Amino acid sequence: MQRVHGIQVLVCLLLVALPLYQSRPTVGVIRWDAWNLVNGNYDAITYWVHKVMNPEAWHFRLPFYAQVLSPTNVSFNGDIQSLMDTEITYAKHAGLDYWAFDTYCSYGPNCQTNNSFCQQYYQQTSYTYCPQAPAYGLDLYLKSPYRNQINFTLLLLGSPACDPSKASYYVSMMKEKGYHTVLNGRPLVYLFQFDNQEAGACGGWASSKLAFNNIRTLAQQAGLGNPYMVLMDFDIGTVKSHAQQLGFDAISSYALPGGTTTGSPFSDQVSYAQSWWSSAVQSGAKVVPITPTGWDPRPRAQTPPPYVSEGPQHYIQPTPTELQNLFIEAIDFTCKNAAATEAQTIIVYAWNESSENGSALIPSLGNSTLYVDALSQVLPRNCQ
Fold it and tell me: 28 in helix, strand or coil?
């Protein structure tokens, strides 16, 4: 009788503790680190970010560490360890699980590079996109004593992603403590800006698939799980087709551009996101739902940088409640469609895309901690 009673007590304890072990989709957020100085100067990319954000109308969107010097001039440098440490605490406060770091080529002064893949990417952007220190954010994160508060993953961009000389670097990152995994240990990897042109630079779609399979092989030889690779593109049919050609595991999108020149309500972007999720699942693909906090490239439309062409169409900033509801809906959708959303994660646009997204999550000069405070009230969220 004592044995039976002991088992009954154990079962009761497990039932009480069960909610602690409910499934919970993770929340990842894209980082675009172009807010730095290099040897005291803005490089080819941050020069334009600085120029784009100088007009007074956009000062409120600047990251919290920026300074307004005059109505037409600002200053910023996010390449400081204490600032990264602070960003980590903000992200932790918001309930976020990982950052997806945009991963580009690094160029020398005057956009110099000896790497053919990087040269192709540079040409593709009309000889304009050539950051000198694109990994400064990731480097600071890896050095931070607070890095255990949020995980990280890589968001690879363009043909340089299939450069065989970079494969060992990607795997070395996957081996780092805190690299985000899904499905019982599979390192999560995103890829964006990979279309016919990028595949051609890699020798075609078949050769591109071999290049990414090589990353899978190296990862598994290093004792890691088979990387879970997610291709991003705006059009569902296109991204599904290309993901199949690359042998990728799932599809997603980097952002959901749209709106009107006068500003569409955020509810319109929510409807767009919901439609994207449903259509992606109905396509038969595995899906990581894209969760956009906004879209507003008007600073770039007013002062066009040479590496991208974007118009004034935009969505109005969400209220804290609207933002909370979007995250709840994205997570609930992920829970209810687990067969398609097998990785049980969502990807959010964006943490610090402040010149393109009027509602970036990073605390800003205008919104302060409004959005991270709002998310802290609803994240983490278990499947219901």
Answer: strand
